[in-house]
Design goal:
This protein is an alpha+beta fold. The chain contains 1 helix and 5 strands, in the order H-E-E-E-E-E. Strands 3-2-1-4-5 form a 5-stranded antiparallel sheet, with no helix packed on it. The N and C termini lie far apart (about 45 Å).
Amino acid sequence: MKKIILAAASLAFMSGAALASSNNGVVMKFSPASRVITLENGHSFTVPRDVGLPNVQIGEKVSIELNDEGDKVTSVLR
């Protein structure tokens, strides 16, 4: 019985992590002052001050990771 509970708990934990989403694309606009990245697909993301921001260049491909709710940027990867 303990093994079934542990397996179910592990599955529930892993599925929660899968809810986080990411957006990949090419940077069309970037405003360092306001920390807003706009991708070529038209989606814009404001990067909070507590999230590290690499040196982003226009035309560069980036991956923007979002929290579980999809409303806050958690990381920007080049």
